[in-house]
Specification:
By secondary structure, this protein is of the alpha+beta class. The chain has one domain: Thiol Ester Dehydrase, Chain A, CATH 3.10.129.10. The chain contains 4 helices and 7 strands. It has a 7-stranded mixed sheet. The protein is globular, with a radius of gyration of 15 Å. The relative contact order is 0.17.
Length: 154
């Protein structure tokens, strides 16, 4: 996890943590998960904008040596899940994916892709996120929409 992660004040207030504690919590949460394995990095966390990056390298490629569509979907759903999580009370609720779609628009064989999630709908029990995945030049690689359920903790 990058040290230069930008976190909005509203996120820190909702989660009742200072920046350092929040960043350390995020690092621990993603340790030894698919997010960690694929090298996904959190860049910006704001209630209406989440930005993540992922390297395009052998662990995120298909045998044709281009970015695997499944890796793009993992990146998109990670962005939507995180975007939902920072908008809900973590002591009472947790987010889960309900539906995701993706259109792969451009191939990518190296470098880094960036996912930017913005809300289409932020409700009490569901949220819908628009995720654009771009290359270093800002060209669209993939577009996705992800619907998240907000479930009560038991």
């Amino acid at each position: 996890m990058r040290g230069d992660l930008t976190v909005g004040d509203a996120v820190l207030q909702l989660h009742k943590m200072d920046r350092e504690t929040f960043v350390n919590h995020v690092k621990e949460t993603v340790k030894d998960t698919l997010i960690d394995v694929l090298g996904i990095e959190y860049v910006e966390l704001f209630p209406d904008r989440v930005v993540l990056t992922m390297p395009v390298e052998p662990r995120t490629m298909q045998p044709a040596r281009i970015l695997h569509g499944g890796a793009s979907v993992v990146l998109a759903e990670t962005a939507a899940t995180l975007a939902t999580a920072i908008n809900i009370d973590p002591e009472r609720f947790y987010p889960v994916g309900m539906e995701i779609n993706a259109n792969h628009l451009r191939r990518k064989s190296d470098g880094v892709v960036t996912a930017t999630a913005t809300p289409l709908h932020k409700g009490r029990t569901t949220m819908v996120w628009d995720i654009k995945i771009t290359d270093e030049d800002g060209k669209l690689v993939c577009i996705s929409r992800c619907t998240m359920a907000i479930l009560p903790k038991r």
